[in-house]
């Protein structure tokens, strides 16, 4: 118990905590880890029992025992998995409200043990609590708990149920390590850990070759980004001699030159890491394939939490990015390119999860734009609201797929349960899913008063105001607007194709379409509420006083901006000193309220026009409709052929090089050398063995001859 | 006097050595080895006349070792004979890898 108390409490370290005393911060990490251990043991037990059944000639995938009841290995995870998350969420919430009450200017750091005391480098296993990590922890444990709860309904018939919850708990643990780490190496442990869990969960149904390959693709593409993160850490260590956040961000203005080569290199490498993890151009290709995993996993890892780690990284290193304007511009440019590019692909996808995947890539692009132009709070704000509505969309899609799967399974129809062309008219069967998903759609489209309106338009606004510094940002601003319009379009298309119009599933199948059970619809409802009101926490004053804030009557505030101010203070100070304040107008004039009105009207018009367009059009089931044959539609359907392009430019040359190394360098040169040495030794040995006849006379003769030679040598 | 003794010793030694090299009967080879030892003994004795008594002491050593060697060597030859029923060394060629 003593050691457990130590783990849970840690050792307070330096810095003014401002009277804030965190409650058991280590326990927040420990709970998901314990959940992983417990579920992992259950998974091993279930696995060995399944192996026994298979050896006995039975069905390895059967869950229920002979008495028709599920064994404890499949009932306990239902309570352990979401339970530890609920515990962690309550702890985080308590800490959050305690932090709300105090003015915290410096992060509270808890150090547990000295992790790497080597030479000049000393890294502690330390966690830190500040406003940014607190927001992230609230999202991770809060949304995480809802998704765990949803998973109970979604995954309960899966033979790998305990394994699923073990991985999911482990993921939450590593994600918390990522956002709570007080230095780069600890963050990196979490960074790699979530990558591992992502790989394990994408390939959760590893019997399917395609899904196992998708997991590998995600892992390998992420390695490219991890290389960047490591390089950044090496340069930081070479410059500062430490890897602690506090020391680095404090000394950065002195040890780095503003806009200098070193800080630009560090931030570009950090950007490479962020681009890999957050699925931005050019490393976004793994995320759409990651949809091979169970849908709640897509909601938790590939929408709400892990893929936002890149945004977190940039926001966390805001001081460094503020000192490297070129890198910050690169962040914003990559974000804008990705937002627009992914949105175009989403226009022509038919797989409901693929639409959401490209939508996620696009929205992550928006977040990158936000943190790229120095609006860190806006980026984190969109990260948070996006976690709400995109998790909702994915869980809703999960409910739809669940229902479609049951319906198609009832008559053993081999249609794709995820293809929207096979759906249609589902609102009659699943009203709760329908309503909540429409709320999320309006939120992501950016329509007042939903959450996305405030967060996305804030980012677009800041990108526009940055136009005062460089024409580049005016272009990015235009791209952001275009991406926002496309977002409204493809989301409406998805909703109409899925829920409206006539049902295309088939008459026998439609009888089996059903609303999801309560433990799946409750998370949808909670997330829907958050998708409506989640944006009200960060509304500028002028907007609050206008129509959008009910002329000051609605309970809105600019809370998040001021909450995150201590975290971004360093970066803001540098930018103010070097560039000056942003002009609070858009490139073509007009204030917040005008652009808010334009944006929401535009989004609404797009939603209505799109809905009318697709309602009027008759959609055919997938086996009749087929792929687009020609034109831009075909290009978009095939995702701009980027995968094919990468295959030609990168994958195949690497494979060819590897094959060359294998067949020529390894087999001919290296193996040849080794074998030649062996053959020569063998030949010499064979020659020598000729003299060993076993005849004593021969030996005696050789001895005598040698003695004569030695004697002769002495004499002459 | 010394030269004649050494020449006799060398002749005896070469005769012994040739016997070891060319004969096939193990007993003969064994006797030839004894001949070589005694050739050496002869030169020891001859030289001790001019160079001190140590040479004669060495002769005693050599004779002692030769006696021990004769006991062991004959025992080996008897053992081999019991096994092969011959003492022709051409048949004994196992002394190799």
Features of this protein?
heterodimer, A: 716 residues, mainly alpha, 71% helix, B: 97 residues, Helix Hairpins
Summarize the structure.
Chain A is mainly alpha-helical.
Structure description:
The complex is a heterodimer of chains A (716) and B (97). Chain A has helices spanning 2-9, 25-55, 72-100, 131-155, 161-180, 184-202, 209-240, 245-255, 261-277, 286-289, 295-304, 309-316, 318-323, 325-346, 352-372, 376-410, 431-445, 451-465, 471-499, 507-510, 518-533, 541-544, 559-578, 592-616, 622-625, 631-637, 642-689, 696-715, and strands spanning 11-13, 108-118, 121-129. Chain A is mainly α and 716 residues long. Chain A has a 3-stranded antiparallel β-sheet with strand order 1-2-3. Chain A is globular, with a radius of gyration of 30 Å. In chain B, α1 (2-22) runs antiparallel to α2 (26-51). Chain B has 97 residues and is mainly α. The chains are: A mainly alpha (716), B mainly alpha (97). The interface between A and B is medium-sized, with 11 and 14 residues.
């Amino acid at each position: 118990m003593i050691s457990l108390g130590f783990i849970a409490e840690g050792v307070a370290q330096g810095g003014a905590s401002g009277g804030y005393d965190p409650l058991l911060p280590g326990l927040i990490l420990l709970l998901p880890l314990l959940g992983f251990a417990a579920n992992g043991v259950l998974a091993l037990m279930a696995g060995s029992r399944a192996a026994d059944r298979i050896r006995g000639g039975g069905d390895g995938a059967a869950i229920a025992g002979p008495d028709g009841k599920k064994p404890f290995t499949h009932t306990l995870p239902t309570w352990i998995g979401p339970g530890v998350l609920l515990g962690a969420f309550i702890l985080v919430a308590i800490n959050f409200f305690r932090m709300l009450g105090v003015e915290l200017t410096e992060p509270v750091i808890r150090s547990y043990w000295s992790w790497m005391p080597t030479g000049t480098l000393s890294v502690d296993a330390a966690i830190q609590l500040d406003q940014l990590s607190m927001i992230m922890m609230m999202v991770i444990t809060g949304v995480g708990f809802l998704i765990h709860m949803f998973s109970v309904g979604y995954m309960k018939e899966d033979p790998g149920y305990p394994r699923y919850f073990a991985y999911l708990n482990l993921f939450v643990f590593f994600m918390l390590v990522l956002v709570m780490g007080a230095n780069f190496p600890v963050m990196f442990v979490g960074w790699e850990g979530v990558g591992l869990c992502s790989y394990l969960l994408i390939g959760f149904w590893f019997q399917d070759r395609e899904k196992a390959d998708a997991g590998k693709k995600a892992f390998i593409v992420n390695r490219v980004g991890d290389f960047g993160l490591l390089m950044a850490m090496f340069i930081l260590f070479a410059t500062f001699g430490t890897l602690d956040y506090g020391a680095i961000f404090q000394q950065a203005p002195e040890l780095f030159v503003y806009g200098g080569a070193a800080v630009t290199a560090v931030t570009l490498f950090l950007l490479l890491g962020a681009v890999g993890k957050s699925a931005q151009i050019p490393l976004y290709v793994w995320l759409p394939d990651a949809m091979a995993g169970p849908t709640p996993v897509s909601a938790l890892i590939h929408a709400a939490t892990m893929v936002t780690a890149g945004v977190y990284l940039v926001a966390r290193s805001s001081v460094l990015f503020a000192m490297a304007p070129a890198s910050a511009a690169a962040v914003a440019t990559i974000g804008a390119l990705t937002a627009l590019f992914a949105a175009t692909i989403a226009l022509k996808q038919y797989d409901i999860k693929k639409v959401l995947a490209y939508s996620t890539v696009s929205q992550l692009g928006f977040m990158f734009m936000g943190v790229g132009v120095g609006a860190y709070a806006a980026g984190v704000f969109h990260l948070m609201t996006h976690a709400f509505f995109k998790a909702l969309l994915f869980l809703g899609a999960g409910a739809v797929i669940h229902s479609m799967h049951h319906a198609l399974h009832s008559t053993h129809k081999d249609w794709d349960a995820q293809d929207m062309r096979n759906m249609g008219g589902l609102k009659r069967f699943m009203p709760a899913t329908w309503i909540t998903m429409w709320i999320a759609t309006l939120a992501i489209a950016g329509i007042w008063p939903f959450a996305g309106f405030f967060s996305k338009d804030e980012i677009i606004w800041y990108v526009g105001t940055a136009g005062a510094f460089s024409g580049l940002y005016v272009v990015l601003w235009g791209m952001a607007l275009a991406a926002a319009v496309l977002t409204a379009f493809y989301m409406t298309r998805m909703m109409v194709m899925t829920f409206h119009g006539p049902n295309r599933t088939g008459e026998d199948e439609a009888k089996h379409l059903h609303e999801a059970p309560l433990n799946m619809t409750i998370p949808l409802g909670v997330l829907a509420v958050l998708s409506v009101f989640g944006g009200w926490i960060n509304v500028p004053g002028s907007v609050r006083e206008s129509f959008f804030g009910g002329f000051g009557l609605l309970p809105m505030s600019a809370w998040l901006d001021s909450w995150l101010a201590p975290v971004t203070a360093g970066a803001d100070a540098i930018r103010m000193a070097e560039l000056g304040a942003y002009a609070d107008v858009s490139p073509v004039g007009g204030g917040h309220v005008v652009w808010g009105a334009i944006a929401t009207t535009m989004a609404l018009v797009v939603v209505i026009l799109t809905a009318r367009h697709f309602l009027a059009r008759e959609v055919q089931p997938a086996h009749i409709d087929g792929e687009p044959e020609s034109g831009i539609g075909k290009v978009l359907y095939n995702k701009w052929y980027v995968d094919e392009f990468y295959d030609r430019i990168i994958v195949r040359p690497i494979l060819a090089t590897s094959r060359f190394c294998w067949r020529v360098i390894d087999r001919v040169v290296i193996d040849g050398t080794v074998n030649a040495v062996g053959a020569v030794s063998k030949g010499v040995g064979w020659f020598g063995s000729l003299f060993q006849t076993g005849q004593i006379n021969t030996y005696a003769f050789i001895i005598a001859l040698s003695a004569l030679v030695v004697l002769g040598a002495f004499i002459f | 006097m010394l030269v004649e003794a050494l020449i006799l010793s060398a002749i005896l030694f070469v005769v012994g050595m040739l016997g070891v090299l060319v004969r096939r009967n193990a007993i003969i080879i064994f006797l030839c080895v004894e001949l070589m030892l005694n050739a050496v003994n002869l030169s020891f004795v001859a030289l001790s006349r001019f160079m001190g008594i140590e040479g004669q002491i060495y002769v005693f050593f050599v004779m002692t070792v030769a006696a021990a060697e004769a006991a062991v060597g004959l025992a080996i030859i008897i053992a081999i004979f019991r096994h092969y029923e011959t003492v022709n060394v051409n048949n004994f060629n196992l002394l190799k890898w």
